[in-house]
Amino acid sequence: MSRLRSSVWVWAPGRCSLRLCPRSMAAATVLSLLTLAGLLVSLSVGQVEIGPDRIVRILAGTDPDAMARRILLDIRLPRGLTAVFVGAALAVSGAVFQSVSRNALGSPDLIGFTTGAASGAIVQIVFFRSGAAGVMVAAVAGGLLTAVVVYALAARRRVVGSYRLVLVGIGMGSILSALNGLMLAKGALDNAIMANLWLAGSLSARNWGHVVPVMLGCILLIPVIVLLARQLSLVEMGDDLAAQLGVRVERVRLVMVLCAVILAALATGAAGPIAFIALAAPQLAGRLTPAGRLPVMVAAAMGALLMVIADLIGHVLPLGVSLPIGRLTGVVGGLYLIWLLSRSRTL
C-alpha cells in the first residue's frame, strides 16, 4: 500500500491497482450507516409497531409471532430494500450522465432515458396488464431502445458530443412524454388508472419481485462503473486529451452510458419514475469527495439515504394518506433545480 498526493491510497499487488481515497471511503461509510439507521426506523414505523429488537429476532428466525414476521418480511422489508437499491441505482446513473454530459443537469430523468423506460412499462401495463416482472423487462427494453436512438442521433462521425447528447435526449423525452399521455388516453380505463398510479412513483405494495432485479443490477453494474470511473473522469477534460492519455473514449462512454441506462431503467421499473434523486445525489456526493473524481460509491450511498428519508417523510406526514414518493421527490427536486440554476454561472 502506497500513498499518492496525500489524499489517495494505491494498492498494487500485481498488474492491477486499486486507488482508495480515505475521504470518499469515510463519506460512503457514514452515509451507509445513516441509511441503515433510516431503514431500521422505516421498518419499525406503521400501524403495527415492530421495535429494533423484534426486527433482529424476526430476521434471525427466533420470533414466534407469525403476523409480525409476515408484515416485516413480506411488506416492509421489500419496500425498504427497494428504496435503498432504487436510490443507489438512480444516483449512480445520474453521476455517470452528469460526467458524460459535463453538465450538472445531465440526469436520466431530464434527458429522456427515464421517460423511455416509463414508455416501455406503460405499454405493458396499459395493453398487456403485466405483473412486476413484465413491467421490469419492458422498462429496461424501453430505456435501452431510447438510449440507442438518442446515442445514434447525437453521434457525428462516430463521436458523441456532450451537449448534443443532452439536447437530443431532452427532445426525445418530450416526444415520449407525449406518447405516454396518448397511450393513457387510448387505453382501457382500469389499465390507464393503474398506469397513472405507477407514474406517480411509489414504494407501496413492493415485493421481492421488485427488489431482486434492481439489487442484481446494482451488484453487477456498479463495480463496472467503479472500474471505469477514472477513465471517464479523464474524458471530462476533453476527448482529445483523454485519447492522448490512452483512454478509448467512445468505448468508455458507450459502456458507461449503457450501464447507467440499465440502472435507471431497473429503478424505474421497480418504483416508477422517481425525480430528484439522480439529479441531486451526485451533486451532494461531489461536495463530500475530492474534486476531479467521479463519486460512484458516495453517490450510491447518498441516493439510498435520500430515498429512505423520502419514504420516511411520506410515512410520517400528517395527511392521512401514504404520499407517493415520486410526487414528494418531484416537489423537492423542483426546488433544488431552481436553487441550482440560481447559484450556477454556467447553466
TrEMBL record:
Record membrane topology: Multi-pass membrane protein
Annotated PANTHER family: FERRIC ENTEROBACTIN TRANSPORT SYSTEM PERMEASE PROTEIN (PTHR30472), FERRIC ENTEROBACTIN TRANSPORT SYSTEM PERMEASE PROTEIN FEPG (PTHR30472:SF24)
Protein's name in the database: ABC transporter permease
Biological source species: Marinobacter lutaoensis
Subcellular location: Cell membrane
Matching InterPro entries: ABC_BtuC-like (IPR037294), ABC_transptr_permease_BtuC (IPR000522)
SUPFAM superfamilies, alphabetized: ABC transporter involved in vitamin B12 uptake, BtuC
Family the entry assigns: Belongs to the binding-protein-dependent transport system permease family. FecCD subfamily.
Transmembrane segments: 80-98, 110-127, 133-153, 165-188, 208-229, 254-281, 293-313, 325-342
Molecular function, one GO term: transmembrane transporter activity
One GO biological process term: siderophore-iron import into cell
Record key words, sorted: Cell membrane, Membrane, Transmembrane, Transmembrane helix, Transport
CC per GO annotation: plasma membrane
